């Protein structure tokens, strides 16, 4: 009887596995999209990208710069925080932004010691309040993520402190943050392992699950958790890691299907083993069949188009129509971050003030 149950269970598991991992049938291999640049009138680099709707988008980046558009990129308004005379805006680089409306957003600045900070606005960027300032010498904050289902719940992620990735958590949309301090349950890092503050997506929240991407070790690794207070599991990503290489971005469209991208930012066109996909919630990661054209710092699923995702990096952009198995290049302009919102609209941002939009035609 027990054997029978075991066999039945195995059969069920096998069926479930096969169903979950069915190869997507790519329907829309046809037209490739193209980016349209918008006039930001600045040369700052924007690694922080926060689209809210088709019209409202925020970007954040170097020299303490934050811009917002309310008209789909036709015009951009400088809504940067004002720094006191003793604090030079040039020292601040906002590598990540999360925005909920034209009024409400939080930004993360990177750096050693107290340069790692989080600011919050409720009035469209007219005023910003510092709601977190790092006091740990070893910490260096890289990225943050908020849940779609519980938008007030977010986690910001730092490089390791005492051998474990440092995480801070907010339950009120970034007004207050506290360190998740249970040593035994935080993700343990290998020597030399860290995260990339390249696009704000080295931590991901999707369908009630959390993911953390790492590099500096080979291969780059991906941690996952259904409850960050209780513990983390980890997997090899199948993406090659090195001093400047590993997993830069991990994104899930639901509880099962995820894509990870990365590579070596010092070798922008090297593309061996720089992208992988998972269909079991990040337990196993499989190498892509054909890779994007080079190092990619960010990837975003396109909502409403089941197996479509867009990846960007300093050497260009790529699209997949089969959930990350095969990638096709479209455009070679430099970008750091990409986000897609409803109705096949994506935004990308990067160096030299580049912020661009693409609208995919009907499927
Ligand atoms: C662009 O920026 C320059 C220098 O900051 C400024 O003088 C000019 O008015 C801006 N142009 C637009 C269209 O915003
Ligand atoms: C701010 O820093 C920049 C770059 O380090 C420097 O060029 C500038 O003079 C500084 N400004 C002030 C007011 O200290
Ligand atoms: C950051 O550190 C500098 C140098 O130690 C100090 O002068 C400044 O007051 C600190 N700022 C904050 C917000 O902690
Ligand atoms: C976590 O570990 C560090 C170093 O091992 C130790 O100093 C610290 O007290 C620990 N914190 C907690 C909350 O256990
Ligand atoms: C992950 O990769 C490391 C380094 O190659 C290897 O030692 C380890 O066994 C791998 N873990 C799994 C679960 O495959
Ligand atoms: C895409 O990847 C699949 C494996 O999932 C492979 O069988 C297929 O031939 C590839 N398609 C193209 C167009 O390269
Ligand atoms: C990028 O694309 C443009 C337009 O297709 C082309 O003229 C240019 O040579 C390309 N640059 C590189 C570095 O491939």
TrEMBL record:
Residues 1-20 form the signal peptide. The keyword Signal applies. It comes from the Eukaryota. Keywords: Signal. InterPro entries: WD40/YVTN_repeat-like_dom_sf. This is Oxidoreductase.
